Amino acid sequence: MDVLINVFVALHIIGIASLLGGFLTQTKAMSAGTARFTPPMLHGALTMLVTGMVLVGLNQADDQALNNIKIGVKMAVLVVILGIVYVKRDDEAAAKPLFGAVGGLTVANILIATLWA
Ligand code: HEM
Question: How far is the CA of 25 from the centre of ligand 1 (A)?
Fold first, then answer.
């Protein structure tokens, strides 16, 4: 079970790499107002949600205690990110504040995941 959980943690981290990487490659375009929500950002966010839910199930099946409040907060923030990226995925250019908000919420989720015990 440990190996399976670790495989999904790895997939979980590949998801955040895709979401944050998609944002970071476009910070210059964001300043110019030409950034857009690219497929890696959408697929990264979806990967986070799916692997996160699988991780909850695997940890429960393995009788591992989870911080449910932390996971709930991560999920709530991610649902907002996913909603924005999904709805705006076909827009030619994303408004600077909205694109910046997705980057900020993504970093906030990383800090919640790593700093909250
Ligand atoms: C952008 C959003 C997210 C980020 C940045 C993130 C980040 C992380 C990181 C770095 C880990 C490994 C470190 C650790 O074990 O604590 C982790 C584990 C985990 N994540 Fe996430 N996560 C996100 C969203 C979610 C969501 C939406 C769920 C549930 C639906 C979830 C459920 C879990 C679970 C169950 C674990 C493993 C158990 C644990 O040790 O807490 N995550 N996450």
Answer: 23
CA distance 51 to 77: 15
Q: Is 75 in the pocket of ligand 1 (CB under 6 A)?
A: yes
Cα(74)–Cα(68) distance, rounded to whole angstroms? 10
- Reading the chain (117 residues) residue by residue, the pLDDT tens digits are 899 999 999 999 999 999 999 999 999 999 999 999 999 999 999 999 999 999 999 999 999 999 999 999 999 999 999 999 999 999 999 999 999 999 999 999 999 999 998
Domain range spanning residue 50? 2-115
- As a whole number of Å, the CA-based R_g of the chain is 15
What's the number of domains the chain is made of? 1
In 10 A of CB 74, how many CB atoms? 20
User: Nearest Cα to 94, choosing from 104, 84, 107, 108?
Assistant: 84
The residue with tokens 């979401």 is 19
| Residue 45 CA, closest ligand 1 atom number | 1
